[in-house]
Amino acid sequence: MNESVSESVIELRNVSKAYGANTVLRNVSLQVQAGEFLTLLGPSGCGKTTILRLLAGFEKADGGEIAIGGQDMRTLPPEKRHVNTVFQSYALFPHLTVFENVAFGPRLQRVGGDALREQVMDALRMVKLEELARRKPGQLSGGQQQRVAIARAVVNRPQVLLLDEPLSALDYKLRKAMQLELKQLQRRLGITFVFVTHDQEEALSMSDRVAVMNAGCIEQLGTPRQIYEAPENLFVARFVGEINNLHGRIVAAAPPRYDIRLHDRVINLKSKWTFAEGDRVNVLIRPEDLRIWREHEGSDEERAKLFPARVEEVVYKGSTVDLIIRLDHGDLLSTTQFFNEEDLALMNLDFQVGERVFVDWVHDWETILPHED
């Protein structure tokens, strides 16, 4: 996103929507900046696609205000909005060529002749499909069809492009390639993208900002790094990537640092939250931040500060080994260990099920939140 551009192109203010007794949006407020790639992330039924449909004009809000480019959208029909949508199914016309599919929108705006051809071919060049202009959708791969759908959506240069899980039908390798292409295309066009997905990795890798949704509300809005490294509640922490949750209690408070009892250990950690002595807390640690020590590693004094555990599962993934370990106190933790070619001692990740180990983590890389079950 262009950092110098800060004006909002989309504004939702206290927007609500219900279908009968089912409330799908609850007083949602959101601003999307011009040229931004914003992703709505959340489980099925959380309201993310409903926001897209309200922006496109396919649905009407029950309450609140929606503005695009400073214009009130509440009474404006879909065809009058400077918004285009790319659907999961692509919705291409099977009987038309690639060229005619992309030309459909400009023709409705009475563009013709050389101007039409130039506009359509420019859009096809953007998605690297100019040589396939005469083919029909049935002669294209899934990835090519997806790019035609994008070309058709951007040919008229809308203010906002709405994308409703457009990559979900692609296989893993093609999906990864299209994530990169889509982000590069967005940067070239400078169009505001609002992208819907339930795939956390996709959201983190493509977005300028991510809105994590749950039960019709935005739980957290921030950059991918903020969402992953500083989740604001337990739902966000659990939904975005894997997380380990240790239950602790504050035994001494000197904000922003606290002595926290975790089982029979007391550890001094930092938190942006304010706690009092006796408060229960969740100490959240990402699997890649856990460190595993073998029984022969470190001194007796060092091991006395660690959590003893046993390996329950070993999953080899090529560049990493994932371990499921159980602390002697009963907690089950997930950890990711990386091969390190520069440190031969860390190359040996040949852990065995049942092996005794010790566990700690890089302190202050954890997130500490008020207690939730």
What does this structure look like?
This protein has 373 residues and is an alpha+beta fold. The chain has 9 helices and 20 strands. It has a 6-stranded mixed sheet with strand order 6-7-8-3-9-10, sandwiched between helices. A 5-stranded antiparallel sheet has the order 13-12-11-14-20, with no helix packed on it. Strand 11 (244-254) and strand 12 (257-262) form a beta hairpin. Helix 2 crosses helix 3 (113-126) and helix 2 runs parallel beside helix 4 (142-154).
Task: Report the C-alpha radius of gyration, rounded.
Answer: 25 Å
From the spread of the alpha carbons, the general shape counts as elongated
Largest sheet composition: 6 strands, mixed
Q: Number of DSSP strands?
A: 20
Helix/strand structural class: alpha+beta
**What's the rounded overall pLDDT mean?**
89
Distance between the termini: 37 Å
Low-confidence sequence ranges: 1-5
| Largest sheet: spatial strand order | 6-7-8-3-9-10
Helical residues, percent? 10-25%
| Total DSSP helices | 9
Percent strand equals 35-45%
Order of helices and strands: EEEHEEEHHHEHEHEEHHEEEEEHEEEEE
